[in-house]
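Reply to dn_fold:

You asked what the input looked like. This is it:
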Amino acid sequence: MTYTGSQNGQISGAADSHVTTYGGLWVQDDQIWAFFLTEPLNKWSHLSINETDFILILSESRHICVGWRSATKGKYTTTIVQPDTHLSESNEKTEATETNEKEPPDFLIGEDLEEGTEVSIQTNLFWNGEMTIINTTPQYLLSFFTTSTNVRECILTIRQEASVGYLPIGKEDRCRLGFLNDTVKLITDLVSSQSQEVRLTIPFAMLLQNVSTRMEDVLVTLKRIKRLETTITGNFDIFELKLRSHWEELTSLFPPNASSISSPWSLISDVEASGIWIKSFGDDYYITFEQLVKTVNIEVIAAGDEALTDRMVKCLRYLVNFPEDDMITTYKFNQLVCLFGLHDFRKNFQNLTEVKGFCGLINRIEAYEILSKSADPLPFLFRISRTEPRFFAFSYRNPKGQICHRVNKDREGHPIQVETFIRKYFPNYKIVDKHLDLDRIFNETSSINPLSKYASSAGYCH
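and this is what came back:
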């Protein structure tokens, strides 16, 4: 819920299209004065006035709780203001005055909070000797559900208009929109199934805010497609790829219906790699990209190799930090170790950087076109798998001239290191003369909506 306004002024806003809130709040002589009305009840808002964070809640008993951030990090102070008359069903504004309680009770929010973090509050408030339970919905959840709904509605509209000829979108691209819709639904269902305990964790909130940002990128492009301002290119699949990666990441770190929250490093399958994370980062769910590069260089130098080249760092960024959210989770760390190993990481990683053949995000159709034009009898390339982004998809032309695809995983579904996989399955094949233009990718996508720019462009692999 977003509010606009200033001190001694009115505020208004909406949590969604069905809920509107009107009210006013001001501070005078160290007292908070407010009038506030929300229908239906049990809604809350978060706003800032003169750099002070406020939270307003209307309870089922129609009492207003006002909270504001105190000097102690992570702590809010609360008090209750009671309307002069009970709020009526007629949606009339009613002035509220502060109670005689001189020192409002303090309560802590689960754990220390970073400055500016949106939080969910659940606390017991006493009024006239009776207990009122106030449950609130975190702002980041409201934002996520609103954006995901808008994305799915926009996809539905585009597909319907395209099916009757109002939009020049072919059947194949309508299917791609359908895949994207299915992935958005996967994430929405996962978030809906999470327990209150998980929703109150800061790592979950931060990761979900990244998902919301990616969905906002999607929405920007979908609206431009609907207005005929852009078309669906081969890079449109970046949206589904990134959202599916987020879904797998959230599912791994916060499994639905889990009885308890596990330590983040328990996700790292390699014992030695897990020990490196624990020693360096303890129980942190994520680190920065700079911390990742530093850790990798320490390990490769200790193994007798040179530090990563600039192109290797760019390729690493493309894999785990594009677009740049600067959150390398234990899920991503484990993914890198599984794909390239720990001790031979640098040598194996050269397959993506120093050797041609890695085509990044191209779909099967583009892979088919590249392989069909190749003069070599047994060509192959590898790319990021759209349906299983934790693996690479290897596309190749077999001795019968057929274009085939397979991912680097064993029968149990575990990743096979890239170097091992190539040596085992493609001993007589020749890698195609193609590579990613990483400089162009990062130069052209350094904008507010990097995925939208990427999805609207073409020719990054040549």
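Residues 1-136 have pLDDT under 50 and may be disordered.
Hope that clears it up.
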